[in-house]
Amino acid sequence: MHHACLSLAAAATLLAAVVSDASALCNVAARPFVMGQPGRISMTVSGEPCRISLQAGGQSRYESLEIVQRPRGGRLVADGRTGVIYTPRPGFSGSDRFIFAVTGTSSIGSGTSELYVDVEVE
Fold it and tell me: Using CA atoms, how far apart are residues 84 and 33, in angstroms rounded to an integer?
């Protein structure tokens, strides 16, 4: 059985990073993920909208984005193929969670990654 191994330098070109736009309080912490593998994101927000933007690295590109599980304490909308915008419900504070999936291609193939987002609303 053959197992594919990637050096750190090669893997870096296959990763996607997650960043947030600056707004009132919109802190997003995420590790890069490989297409076809799940990813985890943590965010801390105030009552303002907070955007998560995906940026493909190397030859990677995103083809579609789908909301898999909506948050209970706020509203989530897809923003094209590369992002989502989370807005807490007025008066809501505490923990929330949602899941979205991105499908794309990289230099080693294609796949869908589910991104699990844990939110803390202050």
Answer: 17
